[in-house]
Every structure is written in C-alpha cells, then in structure tokens.
Amino acid sequence: MAYATIHKQPQDWRVSPNLGAGPDARAGFTWDVARSWLDGLPDGGLNIAHEAVDRHAAGPLADHVAIRWLGKGGEREDLTYADLRRRTNRFARVLEGLGLRRGEVVFALAGRVPDLYVAALGTVKAGCVFCPLFSAFGPEPVRQRLAIGEGRVLLTTRTAYARKVAALRPSLPHLEHVLLIDVGPDDATPEGTVSLAALMASASDEYTIAPTDPETPALLHFTSGTTGTPKGAVHVHDAVVMHHATGRFALDLHPDDVFWCTADPGWVTGTSYGIITPLTHGVTSIVDEADFDAERWYRILRDEHVTVWYTAPTAVRRLMRLGDELAREVDLSALRFVASVGEPLNPEAVIWGVTALGLPIHDNWWQTETGGIMIANTIAADIKPGSMGRPLPGVEAAVVRRGPQGVPRDRPVELVTQPGAEGELVLRPGWPSMFRGYLHDDERYRRCFVDGWYLTGDLATQDADGFFWFLGRADDVIKSSGHLIGPFEVESALLEHPAVAEAGVIGKPDPLAGEIVKAFVVLARGFTPDATLERELIGFGRSRLGAAVAPRELTFVEDLPHTRSGKIMRRLLRSMAKGEEVTQDTSTLENPAILDQLKQGI
After folding, report:
1. Structure confidence by residue, pLDDT tens digits, 24-39
2. How far apart are alpha carbons 134 and 456 in whole angstroms?
3. N or C: which end of the chain has fewer CB within 10 A?
C-alpha cells in the first residue's frame, strides 16, 4: 500500500529547526564548519571525552544533569557534567594504573548501568579504544571479539564473568585485568578479577586528557559478515564531529532537550547516539537499565518529559501491537521529535506515530562502518513513509549498478540515473565518522572501496525527489531487532553439538523483529529428528551465542543446497522459508534434486 507524503508545516515544531527544508538550508556547510562547533584540545588535538564532558563541566553546564539513570528496580541516579568529569577522570587513572598504553582496547560486557558509560568516556579520555559487547552475547561471541581485539582489560559483572568468561581465560592470553562493576571495594572477588569500585576509590579525580588528534583510534565496534569471524570496525576521535553534527541535523537537538536513545551501547547506535551525541550537545540523556516494557516506556516518556526520542523499528512494532489506546492514556505533550533506526521502518509505523503519538516517526539510515547517521528524514522536511530520507549535509550518496558478482572492481562504477532503478547504495568517503579500517584485516577494508566510493552492501533505489528507499542487504547478514548477525557465526556454534553434521542459517521475515534467525540442520548419523532434539539444539544455540543471536526456529533437512564450490546457497533457503517459488539462477547448484527434497521438508 502506498502512503501519501506527510507535508510539514511551521506549526509542526515548537522550536526553530536546526536544519530547514529548503535548498538554502544546506548552503555553506562544510565539515570544517562542523568542527568549529566543537572546542578541540588546547594543543589543537581532538578528544571525544573533552567534547562530551570536560568542556561542559568547565562552564555553565557543570551542574546540569548529563545522564539520568533509571534502574530496573526503581533506582534513580543523576550524574551532572561535573560528576561525569570526576568519574571519567578516575577511570582514566585506573587504566593508567593498570599500565594500559594508548591505543589498547578496553572491552565492556555489561548492561546499561552508570559504570558502563563512565568507562566508555574514561577510556577514550585516556587515549585507549573502547569496545562495547552486547550484554546478551554468549561465551563464543565474547571469546571471538576479545581474541581479535587482544583485549587486556574487560569490564563486566560477577555473573557475566562466571557464566561467559571464566572458562575462556586459558584461550585468552591477552586478557590480564577483569574489573567487576557490581562488587564493593571491600568485597572478595573471584580469582583473576578485581573490584572496579576499589580501584576507583583510590584513584585521583584529576586528569589531563591524553594528547589525542582527530585520527587517533577511539572506538571499536564489531559487526558480523556472512563468512569468517566478526569484523572489528575502527573509528577515530574525528567521529565526534559527525556525532555532534548529526545530533544537530538529524535529531534536531536543542539545549533544553531531554533526550532518550533506547539502544544498548553494545550496538553502535547506543554508543554514537546513546552516549556521545547528546553529551556533546549538553543535554540531559535518559538511560534506562530495564528491557522493553511498553507501560514502563510510556511512563518514562511522560515522567521524564522526554522531548527527543530515538528508538528502533522493532520497539515501535511492539508498541503498535498493543494498540493506540495505551499511548493515548499517557501525557506525551513534552515529546516533539521521534526518530528510528535499525532496519527499515514500515510506512504503517510512520502513520501510527501520527495517530498514537501525535508525531510522525522519522526513519534514518546508517551503518556500523559509517559511524553516524548518513541519510535521514529530518524535522522540517516532508516525509515519504517507507523512505529512509535524503542525505544529510556533507554526505554524498548514490546508487550504482551491480552485476551478478557485485560492483565491478576493475573499472569505474556506473551510477544509476533512472529514478526507481535498483542498485547498491554507495557513499563518497570523507565524512568524519567513516571507519578507518577493519582490525587486522586491511584487505577486507580495501574491498569496501571502488572508484572513489564506499560500497555499503545495501541495495536501494532513489526517486526523482532525491529520497532513498532501502531494498535489502546485498549479502546474507541477518538483521534481527537491530542486531546484525552473521550466519557463519551461528552455523559454527551449532556444529559444536554432536548431533549436527551441517547447518545453514538465514533470516526469516518476522513482523516484530524484522527477521528472526532460522536454522536448517542436517543431523549426524545415529540421531533422529524429533521435537525433543529440536528444543535441545535451540537451547544449545542460546547457551553458546545468547538469545539475541541464536536460532529461534529450526528445521531438520536431509541435505543443504550447495554450489559446486561448496558454498551454501542461502538465498534458496530464504525463498523456501517464505513459501516463494524459487526463481533464482540455480545453474551452480551441485544437486538440483535437493530443491524438491527441501520443499517436502519445509
């Protein structure tokens, strides 16, 4: 169903938009202009923590609430910018005392608690690299990332350490220091760990920020590919220029705003926009420790007078499922702007925002690799429901022709000029938060660029008005509730079970999560497919990978579709899981008879 354009009017906003809708609104913008909105270090350097914390703590915002933390059990803690400066200074001192050198990676495996946010900012303040791990990860994803990042320091909880890390220590020779955030300064800790509170108590709250420059590495975010191990995207301190500018343009942040980004910092959105962006603007940022609960979320929006809300389409769909009445029962009059990211936002969700919240929901698009919002529906511009919007100032995007093997690398790209024609979305490098590499994988990084363009791997179209429309991934990465999941990672974990001879994993469309992880399993000799074994394998997957990554559905098959070179043809599995007729080219299929077998099994 096609939806009419939502035309914006001046009465639709309460404060003057930071980015107007007309062509003149972008005139004169450059990234140097965006850099002038920040302080920089006294010696000409740049540090994310200075822009997010210290410059505010030294001025009139010192006593302004930076982070308002809401605990699961009703706890509440306000951290002012001055508080945040002192605590991040202490954490930087802790790292210094542990002997960490500039550029070393500090990992965090924890939920949304104040110490996680302090650690993120204290790490970059010390010139080290912060890497958040999603708290729902199982042992194997944690091990892989710690091994690739050669992490010497891990911040976590007593329970997470016992369940996910302790048994891994022999396979992680680089891991020297495990800091427990939920242990008192005088409490005993498990062998090989130490209380963070004890270290913080003895650390000075005075610290001079390390001499970082714009190209000094600051953040490491892992994202899964379709094959091989997870990829570690490296971001530098210059990313803060993008974080601040997009907070201004895409999220329309103003000084008096109360901002709530619901994303976990284990996901790049939760770091870029749940930590850095609101703090660079000097606003109050809401942090909720609890998982999704509709009534709780509406209560937070009401009680905390949230003005700008950034959430995920999955959450929006959950709220939609509960109906409009729940939203209408709550006073949401403070809310003035709602945005969404993670997977494409259904047109119905945009319209639901108008009817239930009194505001349209503004979709936007970016990736772990881009580090910041690239394409967005902004507050003053018209919305075409279902579109991800138009490029932000300073961003050049296009659609290029793809062949069967992708974008040719031995000749110039062919730009798609026909409105509505499909191709791969590409971006012109040069924006500040562009990732600077994949950790220990220079060749993979080089393959991301062709003829002066960054290849996003996403398929899209652009219409005659310049709006971009997302079509899907060009590869097999699964997007489930905002998480990017690589099939190979899940398949490898399943293969550790003695009953599994082979596994093929795909994303199956789901109205709530976008996609769920579905596994096709070939059993080893001696095992019989039944409901009991199915439940056992799903439970095994959860124990190894965590609930966010493990399969939610599992089908036993006699064989998987392979190419003659041995690759699993996941696109065939996806078509069959959807109940579609297979129309793709199957000329490379090793055993064509497998199609009929799969149809009968599925």
Report:
1. 888 899 999 999 999 9
2. 23
3. N
Length of the chain: 602
pLDDT of 388-430, one tens digit each? 999 999 999 999 998 877 898 888 999 999 999 989 999 999 9
pLDDT band at 588 (very low <50, low <70, confident <90, very high): very low
Say if residue 267's pLDDT is above 80: yes
Average pLDDT estimate for 481-488: 74
Read out DSSP for 45-84? ---HHIIIIIHHHTTTTTTSEEEEEE-TTS-EEEEEHHHH
Which burial class, exposed, middle or buried, applies to 357 when counting CB atoms under 10 A from its CB (0-12, 13-18, 19+)?
buried
Q: Residue 223 burial (CB < 10 Å; 0-12/13-18/19+)?
A: buried
3 state DSSP class of 347: helix
CA distance 553 to 506: 10
Torsion angle of C-alpha atoms 169, 147, 224, 368, degrees rounded to 10: 110
Q: How far apart are CA 232 and CA 174, in angstroms?
A: 17
Distance, in Å, from the CA atom of 364 to the CA atom of 388, rounded to the nearest integer, reads 5
pLDDT of residue 597: 65
For residue 223, what pLDDT is reported? Answer: 84
CA-nearest of 446, 424, 422, 421 to 435 is 446
User: CA geometry: angle at 238 spanning 134 and 448, to 5°?
Assistant: 70
- For 437, counting Cβ atoms within 10 Å of its Cβ (0-12 exposed, 13-18 middle, 19+ buried), the class is middle
Question: DSSP label at 6?
Answer: B
Single-letter residue type at 544: R
- Predicted local confidence at residue 578, as pLDDT: 74
Closest CA to 474 of 448, 495, 492, 497: 448
Cα distances from 332 to residues 76, 255, 296, 315, 378, in angstroms, run 21, 20, 13, 17, 20
Q: What is the spatial distance between Cα 434 and Cα 233, in angstroms, rounded to a whole number?
A: 10
Q: DSSP 3-state assignment of 158? A: helix
Assess contact for 231 and 444: CB atoms under 8 A: yes
- Could you tell me which residues come within 8 angstroms of residue 286 by beta carbon, excluding any fewer than 6 positions away? 68, 70, 258, 259, 260, 300, 304, 306
Distance CA 289, CA 304 (A): 15
User: Which residues face 193 on adjacent strands?
Assistant: 178
**Dist. CA 325–CA 320, nearest whole Å:** 10
CB 507 within 8 A of CB 574: yes
Placement of tokens 């660029």 in the chain: 449
Tokens 């690398």 correspond to 409
Q: Are the C-beta atoms of residues 561 and 575 closer than 8 Å to each other?
A: no
3-state secondary structure (DSSP) of residue 372: coil
